[in-house]
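Section 3.1: Structural characterization of target chains.
Under the original work plan, the team committed to producing a structural model for every single-chain target entering the pipeline before any wet-lab resources were allocated. The record below documents one such target. The sequence was received from the expression subgroup and is listed exactly as submitted; it comprises 85 residues.
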Amino acid sequence: MLKANGFDEAVIGVGRRCSQPDLIVYSIEKCLAILVKQGMSDEEAEEYFEFNVVGGWVGEETPMWMNEMTCEEVEITADECTKQE
């Protein structure tokens, strides 16, 4: 499993998929908070994170970035995505 440098405090677990390598799972919210703590504004942190972190593919063991949500929030998000189609 590959680790993302500087984001140890944002680890929330290990993700598993059928016949795929396990992945370290990071909380997006916690990653953004780390970047803000390092001196970035909220906007700078989001832009940096999306381009340099989420956008950095390093193979099958690239970590997973997760928005922490309740089941209800996931259902609302899924409904909104369906409406947009």
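The chain has one domain: 8-84.
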